Amino acid sequence: MVDWAHGGTAPFAAALDQPALRAIAERPLNRLLRPRMTLDDFVAGAESAPAPAGFIFHMSRCGSTLAARMLGALPGGVTLSELPTINDAVLLAHAAPDLTPEQRVALVRAILAAYGRGGRRLCFVRFEAWHTLALPLLRRAFPQTPLVFLTRDPVEVLVSHRRFGGTDLLAGTMPQIWRIDGAADEDELAARALGRICESAAMHLRAGDLVIDYRDLPSAVWTRILPHFGVTADDSVRAVMARLAQSDARAPGAVFAPDTNDKQRQADDVLRLLAETHIGEAYRRLHPGAYAAMD
Question: How far is it, in rounded angstroms, from Cα 170 to Cα 63?
Answer without folding.
Answer: 20
